[in-house]
Amino acid sequence: MASRSSSILLAAAALAALVSVGSCLSALSFKTGPGCSATKLVLIPSIAISEVEVKEKGADDFSGLKEGPAGTWTLEGKAALKGPFSIRFAAKSGGYRVVDDAIPASFKSGSVYKTSLQV
User: Fold this and answer.
1) Residue 20's pLDDT is what?
2) Is residue 35 a part of any domain in this protein?
3) What angle do CA 97, 67, 47 make, to 5 degrees?
4) pLDDT, tens digit, for every residue of 38-78?
5) Domain enclosing residue 107, as ranges
6) Total domains present in the chain
7) Residue 16 lies in a domain
8) What φ, ψ does residue 10 adopt, rounded to 5°?
9) Environment class of residue 52 by beta-carbon count within 10 Å: exposed (0-12), middle (13-18) or buried (19+)?
10) Domain with 44 in it: what CATH number?
11) Whole-angstrom Cα distance, residue 34 to residue 47?
12) Which long-range contacts (C-beta less than 8 Å, at least 24 apart) are formed by 88-92?
């Protein structure tokens, strides 16, 4: 009997661990940082990421952002930027991700834009 109750307790502990790990996931979000303007996009992701690129509406390719202090990423254009913006990035934990239309055309400094991507 002791082995049966031990097995049940072990199974319950494993299930609890899986549930707690799953509940740690949250939606990736991007905050637009100070200094955003029609020609400048500043992003602050909610997780550590690298190699951040954005694709403007109607563009064929992604444009790289410059990494700044405190986890900020900046794109400066000579002309007005055209949203919505899709974001492609490399997660620090590995792998590339793309989030389509993550930042709307009418972005404003200090706004938070949540994505459906769970991290």
Assistant:
1) 45
2) yes
3) 45
4) 999 999 999 888 899 999 999 999 999 999 988 899 999 99
5) 26-114
6) 1
7) no
8) -65, -45
9) buried
10) 2.60.40.760
11) 18
12) 88/52, 88/53, 88/54, 88/55, 88/62, 89/45, 89/49, 89/50, 89/51, 89/52, 89/53, 90/49, 90/50, 90/51, 91/47, 91/49, 91/50, 91/119, 92/47, 92/48, 92/49, 92/50
Q: Phi/psi class of residue 3: alpha, beta or left (left: φ > 0; alpha: ψ in -120 to 50)? A: alpha
The length of the chain, given as a count of residues = 119
Looking at residue 97, what is its pLDDT?
Answer: 92
Question: Does 71 map to a domain?
Answer: yes
Q: Is the pLDDT of residue 113 over 90?
A: yes
Residue-wise DSSP of 18-57? HHHHHHT--EEEEEE-TT-BTTEEEEEESS-EEEEEEE-T
Residue 32 has pLDDT above 50, yes or no: yes
Please state the pTM of the whole predicted model: 0.75
Averaging pLDDT over each range in 1-10, 85-94, 108-117, which range is the top one?
Answer: 108-117
Q: Would you state the pLDDT for residue 93?
A: 74
